[in-house]
Design a protein that fits this description.
2 domains, alpha+beta, Aminopeptidase, disordered N terminus, N-acetylmuramoyl-L-alanine amidase activity, Immunoglobulin-like, six-stranded mixed β-sheet
């Protein structure tokens, strides 16, 4: 299924701003900005599982803390280079939210963003190297952090494929609070496609390609940041990997589907990957199709979306739950990509 920001070691701390409060049951105890490292640190009394996403207009990083209560002191933290401010709120009962508002002239590469922690109560978000200067308005630095020196457009123009080393972006669908499709025996799309995608990336890197992944952990990533990762990397190929679903009442529906948007190059890529899978993986053929899915419609390089089977299908769900089948699927997708690169 197709849909729409992450991952988690705490080193020595140089604290420039601290908000500390007495503890209550699973209260957000403090949040603070280490401006010298452009790193947000926060701690709760009880264990939590932060859920982070990147939101646009205005651009901001949102971290939800399910089950954490608001502190009494909610004064915002004024940011350093690239950060306008950090504030805390409660969008709904039972969820405390930290918002990092990005300063004008800066952009965030979600693939470089990490939410990390040594335990389930102590966390940090490293904003470097994810935070990049992209031109436009600038908030003067409040710390020794030096913004990247070059001015780059946020969205580069369409490009022709490189003659040399190819850049491939692999996009595992869904993630974080969005598990994607849930199938027979609770099979979750986001977990399956992350495993397949990581294996595809490893094979392609071993074959000499420059591979970027939109996510490398069970994190939430919206659709536009996935496109941004590919565009900012000036990728030659974009492959989004998903698993399909219908109703659990339709276990007879199984099979492989591969989608492209409109370009001839996208169609060639889709057909090459599709045929590579069919030639080496036991799966029904539901064809190569055109579609207007956001990530293949908004990217400027040849882009496809591969539906690796139905988690609600009696055949596909059994196969997708099998690590050996997922390995074969990853190998077949990687072979198709490599064949396309050689032919184009």
């Amino acid at each position: 299924m197709r849909s729409r920001t992450w991952a988690i070691g705490l080193g020595s701390l140089l604290l420039t701003t601290v908000l500390a409060l007495p503890a209550r049951a699973n209260q957000l105890l403090f949040w603070r900005l280490d401006a010298s490292q452009n790193r947000l640190e926060f701690k709760t009394q009880g264990a939590i599982a932060p859920q982070a996403q990147l939101i646009f207009n205005p651009q901001r990083i949102v971290i939800d803390l399910p089950g954490a209560t608001l502190p009494a002191n909610r004064s915002p933290i004024q940011g350093g280079a690239g950060i306008r401010e950090i504030r805390v709120g409660q969008p709904e009962a039972g969820i405390t939210r930290l918002v990092i508002e990005i300063a004008p002239g800066y952009t965030v590469d979600p693939s470089q963003l990490r939410v990390e922690g040594p335990d389930a109560t102590t966390w940090q978000i490293r904003l470097q190297p994810a935070l990049r200067f992209a031109g436009g308005g600038i908030v003067p630095p409040r710390s020794p952090v030096t913004p990247p020196p070059s001015r780059q457009p946020q969205l580069p123009p369409p490009r022709s494929p490189q003659v040399g080393r190819q850049i491939v972006v692999i996009d595992p669908g869904h993630g974080g609070p969005d598990p994607g499709a849930i199938g027979i025996n609770g099979l979750q799309e986001a977990e399956l496609v992350l495993d397949i995608s990581q294996q595809v990336a490893a094979i392609l890197r071993n074959s000499g390609l420059d591979v970027r992944m939109t996510r490398t952990a069970d994190i939430d990533l919206d659709l536009e940041p996935r496109v941004q990762i590919a565009e900012q990397a000036r990728a030659d190929i974009f492959v989004s990997i998903h698993a399909n679903a219908l109703s659990l009442d339709r276990p007879e529906v199984n099979g492989l589907e591969t989608y492209y948007y409109a370009s001839q190059a996208g169609e060639r890529l889709a057909r090459t990957i599709h045929q590579s899978i069919l030639s080496s993986v036991s799966i029904r053929d539901r064809g190569v199709r055109q579609a207007r899915f956001y990530v293949i419609r908004r990217t400027t390089m040849p882009a496809v979306l591969v539906e690796t089977g139905f988690v609600t299908g009696s055949e596909d769900s059994r196969n997708l739950a099998n690590p050996n089948h997922r390995r074969k699927m990853a190998e077949a997708i990687a072979r198709g990509i490599l064949q396309y690169v050689r032919q184009n």
